[in-house]
Specification:
coiled coil, about 0% strand, elongated, mainly alpha
Amino acid sequence: MNYFEFYGIPESFKVDGAVLKKKFYELSKLYHPDFYANEDDAKQQEILELSTLNNKAYLALGDPAKRLEYILKLHDLVSEGAKPQLPADFLMEMMDINERLMEVEDADELAAITSETLAIEGDMNEELANLTNDYEELDHTAKESRRIEIANIYYKQKYLLRIKESLSTFAARL
């Protein structure tokens, strides 16, 4: 079941936290297994599944990063183990950072690379915010196109995360 449909809210990268929490608590009360203790096994199983769905939906939609990933998965734009085609200029930039990172000799060099990496991440986050801000107002075709752009940033962020992990490893050594 689509989590947005389950909660009766529109698909959006920007969910109202108060509305989400209200829906979660309403359904938590409605589908609490203790209220169905005297029902038959089939009904108890159904309620348990609905309660579990409610918890999973709240966890996925309540966290902006998980919500973004959920929406992209919902539209088959990301999957585990996928090998996305990232732009050559981005890959070259990441390769350059990686090479400089392997040759880093002191804390100042590491700080410069870290600063550059954080600037790239900041630019990605800003671009992502711009792409998700008006998503709900777009027509179906525009939403589809927008999701593809968002998926590209998602994969770039995953790549950049590996660079940041390497930075942390090298920082611990210096």
